[in-house]
Amino acid sequence: AVLKAVWGLLIILSVSSSWVGTTQIVKITYKNFYCPFFMTWFSTNWNIMFFPVYYSGHLATAQEKQSPMKKFRECSRIFGEDGLTLKLFLKRTAPFSILWTLTNYLYLLALKKLTATDVSALFCCNKAFVFLLSWIVLKDRFMGVRIVAAIMAITGIVMMAYADNFHTDSIVGVAFAVGSASTSALYKVLFKMFLGSANFGEAAHFVSTLGFFNLIFISFTPVILYFTKVEHWSSFAALPWGYLCGMAGLWLTFNILVNVGVVLTYPILISIGTVLSVPGNAAVDLLKQEVIFNVVRLAATIIICIGFLLMLLPEEWDEITLRFINSLKEKKNEEHVDDITDSSVHLRSRSRANGTVSIPLA
C-alpha cells in the first residue's frame, strides 16, 4: 500500500506536469505558427510509439520474455478472439480515431480563444459528460451526487462564458472546449461499450493502432488544408519542429502515464493528477501575466474542479460514509465505557484504602 501510494504521488506529479507542459507549449507555438489540425495530426502519429515503449518495458521487467509478434498477437485480443483483422481495423479503429482527432483538434482550437487555465478547467467537465452518457447509454447506476456534479459543471461552463461578458471569442472558445470534453466522454463510453476494459498491453496496442490509422487514412486532410491555404506555411524548414516535437512527446507521455498509473497505483490518483493541471496552468498563466482572475472566472474554475472531484466518489460512497460514522461512534462509546471502568476501579481502591466499600452508579 505504501509503495502504491508513493508511485501514486509520482504519477500525479508526472500526469499534471505533462498535461500542463503540453498546453503551455501549444500556447507558445501559436505565437508564430497556427495550424491546429496539422499539430493534431502530427502529435497523433506519435501514438505509434506507444506499443514499442510498452514492449521495451516488458523486456526490462518480465521474467518470461515473449517475442514482439507473440506479444502483439496477445494484446490484439482487445479486438476479439481472432485478433486484429483488416475488417476490425477499419470497423473498430475508424470511429475511435475520428473521436480522438476531434477531441485534440477542438482542444487546440479552444487554446487560441481562451487561456490555458480556462481550457483545462472546462475540459475537466468530461467526467460529468461520461457519467451522463453512461447513465443513458450503458444504464449505469443513478447517483444523486454525480447529478449534482454534472449541474456544477454546467454552471461553471455558463459562468466561464459570462466571465468575459459573453464576448464572441469567449463563447466560441468555451464551445470548442466543451466540444472537446464531449467527444472525449463519447470516446470513453463507446470504448467501454464495444471493447470493455483493457489492460496496459491492450491499451498500448489500441493507441498504437490509432496512430497507424491516423497516418494512413487521415494524412490527406492536412495536405488538403495546406493546398487550400487554410493551414499554410512557407517551407518545412520554417516549421517550429522543436515545439512540435515537444508537444507531441509530452502528449504521448501523458497518455502512457495515464495507462501506467492504473497498473502501478490507484486509478483515482490519475484523475487527481488531471485536475491538478488546472492550478498548474493557472500558476504558469499568472507568471506569464496572460490571465487576470476576476471573481466570476475564479468561481467558475473552482466549481468545475469541485464537480470533477465529486465525480471521483465511488458508487458505494454513502454506505462507506455511514460505516465510517458508525465506526467512529462505536469507538467513542468504547472509550466512554473504558473511562467509566477506570473511574470505578479508582473509586474502589480509594474506598478500600479508607476501610469502606462503595459501589459506583453506572
Automatic annotation (TrEMBL):
One of its GO terms (cellular component) is membrane. Keywords: Membrane, Transmembrane, Transmembrane helix. The keyword Lipoprotein does not apply. The chain crosses the membrane at residues 6-26, 33-55, 89-107, 119-138, 144-163, 170-191, 203-227, 239-258, 264-284, 291-313. The keyword Transmembrane helix applies. Residues 7-161 form the EamA domain. It comes from the Eukaryota. InterPro entries: EamA_dom, EmrE-like, Solute_c_fam_35_mem_F3/F4. Pfam families: EamA. PANTHER family: SOLUTE CARRIER FAMILY 35 MEMBER F4 (PTHR19346:SF2), SUGAR PHOSPHATE TRANSPORTER DOMAIN-CONTAINING PROTEIN (PTHR19346). This is Solute carrier family 35 member F4. It comes from Equus caballus (Horse). The gene is SLC35F4.
